Amino acid sequence: MLQGKYIKNDNQTSTARQLELEKDYADELNSGDSVFVSDTKNHLYSYYKVYNIRLETDKKYKISLSSLCDCWGFKKYLFIPAVIGFDQQENPADAKLEKENVDFGYEFGPLSLNTSYILDSNYGGNFNFFVFSANKDLNQELYTFLTLPIPIPVKVKSTLVGKFHIKIEELKP
User: Fold this and answer.
1) Distance, CA of 61 to CA of 55 (rounded, Å)
2) What is the pTM (predicted TM-score) of this model?
């Protein structure tokens, strides 16, 4: 699990946004957000958003994230979405959080990088988590598509910020 320190940007509040199950939320990571230092040894920094969801004991949930491509112009970028859970004292949360899958799609209009996590809740109550950009390989090629009507390869690369969608669903047994 990622561990690091959190740097609050004085110009931006890091108050958790309350989410509800089964609702789709649109948001954006930007340079005005607070910073998460995920790897102090390698100096990996990422902007983050804080969320909160009410969980029931011994239930499973799916957190779905879709990072939207900034596809205007010649440069095409999207961030690699990641999640880390924490308690009220910003320690890693007592909940099992595993990455389920990663794929590309067009569910929200432009190309999106879709990542989902399975959350196995060991306790009931509020679960806080960060959504941030996994910045280990910035500017790496993530996807290539062909333009039409003349087939020209266009490369999509990773970046620090961008728009995204988030949805949390309870998984039924």
Assistant:
1) 9
2) 0.85
